[in-house]
Amino acid sequence: MKYRKIGKSDLQLSIITFGAWAAGGWMWGSTDRNEAIKAIQAGLEEGMTSIDTAPIYGQGTSEEIVGEAIKGLSRDKIQILTKFGMRWDTDQGDLVGPSKNNQGQDITIYKYAAKDSVIYECEQSLKRLGTDYIDLYQIHWNDKTTAIEETFEAVARLIEQGKIRYAGVCNYDKEQIARAASVCPVISNQIPYSMVNRGIEKETVPYCIANDIGILAYSPMERGLLTGKMKPGQQFGAGDHRANLPSFTDDSIARTNAFLKTIEPIADKYDVTLGQLVLGWTVAQPGITIALAGARNASQTISNARAGDLEIEQQDIDTITKELHTMLP
């Protein structure tokens, strides 16, 4: 496993970081708590020392699972990344809309990042994670009802108190990052990026490179689409959000699989799976520091982690990118 320093900090994360959204079950149909714990622990054994979670993932479930998985381990050998700013237990802030929790009960989600809420959320996350500090604390989405400066004044206070080490953002554009950074140092931006979702390359990536801000790419395998294991007619379980996404129509799956077929020889050359090749290509892109990869069981985690050792020759990176432009413009 390779490791990279994030922005202007001494925080080093495993180049493939465990993404714990699916582990929390919410929007993924369900979760098997024991399998999720084993998945995280398998990653740690493979050198995947960084784990990204959030309170909203299962309304605390994912953070609790992460806390159980790392219990009794050397805390200074593990990097815990979590988030704030998405609430299901208040009616304040920027309304996202209705959802259901893991028990099938109706809940309403709000983006809320007022100062008192940030402080409260941090305390709750620390309890669920069973730790006294968070390595990277990230706002999950912008809350339009709260000034960014107010939010990050609270984050700066948490850094001063030693409850968090560094501040990051998620899903922010360059103007939002600049406002946050005017109040508190920001070392990273976690944002969606994959072979089939490259919109950030135009403005966000150049801005982050110029300002030494790390990019943590989430959904690099496009929620499983880029593994090559899906087929037209794919059936998703109840509560799985992918069923309604345009990326998972029969036509989209067929076109993506046709592209993946063209790069199979490169995967064979390196003796890796298509998923591992996709992760390797992702972290080889300019400005992309880390790729977050989710897993539901230990075997998936081990496969993802081993992509952290992959060194792809530039000519093969270029060939993959050319095929992408040709087949999935």
Automatic annotation (TrEMBL):
SUPFAM superfamilies hit by this protein: NAD(P)-linked oxidoreductase
Pfam families cross-referenced by the UniProt entry: Aldo_ket_red
NADP-dependent oxidoreductase domain: residues covered: 16-322
E.C. number: 1.1.1.-
Keywords, ordered alphabetically: Membrane, Oxidoreductase, Transmembrane, Transmembrane helix
Top-level EC class as recorded in UniProt: oxidoreductase
Any one of the GO CC terms: cytosol
Transmembrane segment boundaries: 12-29
Gene3D superfamilies documented for this protein: NADP-dependent oxidoreductase domain
Molecular function per GO: oxidoreductase activity
UniProt name for this protein: Oxidoreductase, aldo/keto reductase family protein
